[in-house]
Amino acid sequence: MEICRRLNSKNLLAAADGNVSLRLADNEILITPSGRNKAHIRPQDIATITLDNEVVDGVPSGERLMHLEVYRNVQEAKAIVHAHPPAAIAWSISFPEAKELPSGCMSELILALGSVPIAPYARPGTRDMGKVLAPFLPDSRVMILGRHGAISWGEDLEEAYNGMERLEHTCLILKYAHEFGGISELPPDEISVLREMRARMGGKSL
Hints:
This protein is 37% helix and 17% strand. It has helices at 2-9, 64-73, 86-94, 107-113, 128-131, 157-180, 188-201, and strands at residues 19-25, 28-31, 47-49, 55-57, 79-83, 118-119, 142-145, 149-154. An 8-stranded mixed β-sheet has the order 4-3-2-1-5-8-7-6, with helices on both faces. The mean pLDDT is 96.
């Protein structure tokens, strides 16, 4: 509930948008409810599902198949945040051929997230939403969902949230740079050093 309120306060989702889940055990997952404003959900609204998509309790998000795809592919994933960050979505709309964010332009993006792929558009609520993520797992912890939103997984809820917040902050910087005159990259040798630094840091979203 706290993570949902943070997402709402940062304009990373609106009304009934988005969903958050937490893996309590190998086959027990808590997930936010379907069709509810995330800023106002209550403890009793949280649903429980299994890794096989069995509904144990409540009315889980209609986009739960995407969460389950990540959990099945990434053992380290304990929490997932799916939101609709405006600048990140706008980037995928404005640059429909882009496969990832231009990560070589700023040190913070490389160190905090590595590369951020842009998954092809998939119809919300369908199994395809999970399938389009599979090629990027487990290497990518933060991904833009083309023309739809973004997803971030972490080893706890804090990391999953941080990935989403970092993504939108990065996309806003890219937006300003594009408007101010264009995006330029760091020298190739500096990019290599930064990527080595990230690898030594363990690859978490920061």
